[in-house]
Design a protein that fits this description.
The chain has helices spanning 2-30, 49-55, 58-91, 95-109, 112-125, 132-155, 160-168, 173-202, 205-210, 217-227, 231-277. 81% of the residues lie in helices and 0% in strands. By secondary structure, the protein is mainly alpha-helical. α3 (58-91) runs parallel beside α6 (132-155) and α4 (95-109) crosses α6 (132-155). The protein has 11 helices and no strands. It has a single domain, classed as Orthogonal Bundle (MetI-like fold), CATH 1.10.3720.
């Protein structure tokens, strides 16, 4: 029975990974096929032409620059807002906590097109024209909720007595925030910044309605699909996947390194305590 369960588990994992990876492999393979259609069959030969065309496409580099600027701005704004909302909600009780939590979560449940249109109409009423600045504001309105959820989850493991002890010893609220609370929240803040960055990069609906005349990668790809997609899009997607995997690998290696350093410091502290007791 145990062997059968293990076999079914491994079979499920293999099918799940195949379901995820096979389309990506086909998509990546099409970027090397010497065919004007984005396909791997029939295979007409190996080529780097689509990467060369991508390199010489000025519009896509303009869109890529805009995408990065928007993503960085969204992460820079969403992380403080989400963290502040999480800290506030965590300190409240009763109905006000539920109301504030619901207000912060509501944008996640709203369709992206609704957020994009409402953002455009609201700021136009204030005589603020469309552009990438509205794309940033529209994306922050719902991405901040993801950051809030991550920080809230991290706050569940925070010992409130540490704050009380620091205040009793004469620390100011600012010092408690900088030296006790924020160091505990750094992992959640880092993960929130990464999620905000990549959520912004892949956003389409909000950006489409608020961007004005500016291009982003998602809008660019959408326009290429309408006018006739070529394997340059496959080459772009492959590079983005490799970029994402590289960042994920770097983050995981850095996390493991920090964990080893923390474990080494804790072990050294225990040895010092044992030496004092001896």
């Amino acid at each position: 029975m145990h062997k059968k369960r293990d076999f079914l588990f491994h079979l499920y994992m293999a099918l799940f990974l195949a379901y995820l990876l096979i389309p990506l492999m086909i998509m990546g393979g099409a970027s090397f096929n010497d065919s004007k259609l984005p396909t791997v069959y029939p295979w007409k030969g190996w080529t780097w032409q689509w990467f060369i065309d991508l390199w010489h496409d000025g519009r896509i580099w303009y869109a890529f620059r805009n995408t990065l600027l928007v993503a960085v701005a969204v992460a820079a704004i969403a992380v403080p807002i989400g963290a502040a909302a999480a800290i506030l909600i965590n300190s409240l009780t009763g109905r006000i906590r539920s109301v504030l939590y619901g207000v912060m979560i509501a944008p996640i449940l709203a369709p992206g097109a609704v957020i994009g249109i409402s953002t455009l109409l609201f700021w136009n009423k204030l005589n603020v024209g469309s552009g990438l600045h509205l794309s940033v504001l529209g994306q922050v309105s719902y991405i901040a909720a993801f950051v809030m959820l991550l920080v809230l989850a991290r706050l569940q493991s925070f010992d409130q007595s540490l704050e009380e002890a620091a205040l009793d010893l004469g620390a100011s609220h600012g010092q408690v925030m900088r030296r006790i609370l924020l160091p505990h929240l750094y992992p959640a803040l880092g993960a929130g910044a990464a999620i905000a960055f990549f959520q912004s990069i892949e956003n389409f609906n909000i950006t489409l309605f608020t961007r004005g005349n500016s291009d982003t990668l998602t809008v660019y790809v959408f326009s290429k699909v309408r006018s006739g997609i070529t394997p340059t899009i496959n080459a772009l997607a492959l590079l983005l996947i490799l970029f994402t995997l590289g960042l994920a690998l770097w983050y995981e290696l850095a996390r493991r390194r920090r964990a080893r350093l923390e474990a080494a410091r804790e072990a050294e502290g225990r040895r010092a305590e044992d030496a004092e007791l001896a």
